[in-house]
Specification:
- With 245 residues, this protein is α+β, with helices and mostly antiparallel strands.
- The chain has two helices and 15 strands.
- The protein has helices at 31-34, 207-244, and strands at residues 7-13, 19-24, 35-41, 49-51, 54-55, 60-65, 76-82, 85-92, 104-110, 116-121, 135-143, 150-155, 161-164, 173-183, 197-201.
- A hairpin with a 5-residue loop joins β9 (104-110) and β10.
Length: 245
């Protein structure tokens, strides 16, 4: 094995068009000159194909394989070659390393009640293996001026929309939102986060909101006044008792 040259070898697939394998290498390595991946279906031991890797970001060599089809039983045998020498073999079943494509066509609209309706579409056509499969989503949104303060909401049902309640946002700020997904039958990876959409929070406090906030405040004030009256009364009783004696 090419110790020192290959680290963190892993494969994942969109289970529709491509199987991607990558591994980390030193910064000086030219992936296309020093590595090759030979691959074959486990059921066809004599039919080898070759993938020439490319240098990617984060010091990764990346090899992209384009199978003609995907089925749950499909398994590949990969042989990694370094400078003409076979270094090691890797067995991968694409159905076990599915990283779905991110949702697409993310959009946001302001509703009549002042809330924001976020919607999106699945990134797979009706002919894909993943089309119609059970899928869950995560929505995240944040103030653009404070990108580390992120709200994340899980959607554990078959919906392609989410309502962001305006009263949960801070008025006068620009916000951004994004969505990712995972298929329950192929749970290895979440997708990447989708492209962002932006919106502006100009939420106005309504009379109903003011009433909802006023009720607990009034209750707290009543309790505080009651406690103060109680202490004043006990002090008065104690003082009166001392005077009478």
């Amino acid at each position: 094995m090419a110790a020192g040259h290959v680290q963190d070898f892993a494969c994942f697939t969109d289970f529709d068009k491509e199987l991607v394998c990558h591994w980390k290498v030193p910064t000086h390595v030219d992936c296309s000159k020093e590595f090759l991946i030979y691959y074959r279906k486990e059921s066809h031991p004599l039919l080898n194909s070759v993938c020439v890797p490319e240098n990617g970001k984060d010091r990764l060599c990346t090899c992209t394989i384009h199978p003609k089809y995907f089925v749950s039983s499909l398994t590949y045998i990969l042989t990694l070659q370094f400078n003409g020498t076979d270094t090691w073999n890797y067995r991968v079943t694409p159905a076990l390393v599915v990283k779905p494509r991110a949702p697409k066509n993310l959009a946001i609209e302001k509703a009549e009640n002042g809330n924001f309706n976020l919607s999106w579409e699945e990134s797979y056509s009706s002919s894909s293996m993943l089309s119609g499969q059970l899928v869950i989503y995560e929505v995240k949104y944040w103030r653009k001026q404070h990108p580390t303060e992120v709200s994340v909401k899980a959607i554990n049902y078959q919906a392609k929309s989410f309502e962001i309640v305006a009263s949960s946002l801070q008025r006068g700020y620009d916000y951004a939102a994004s969505v990712r997904c995972k298929y329950l039958g192929y749970p290895a990876y979440w997708s990447e986060w989708s492209e962002e959409v932006e919106f502006f929070s100009d939420y106005q406090i309504t009379a109903e909101d003011a009433l909802r906030m006023a009720v607990p405040v009034a209750c707290v004030l009543i309790m505080a006044v009651s406690i103060m009256c109680y202490f004043c009364f006990t002090k008065y009783v104690a003082y009166a008792s001392q005077v009478l004696w």
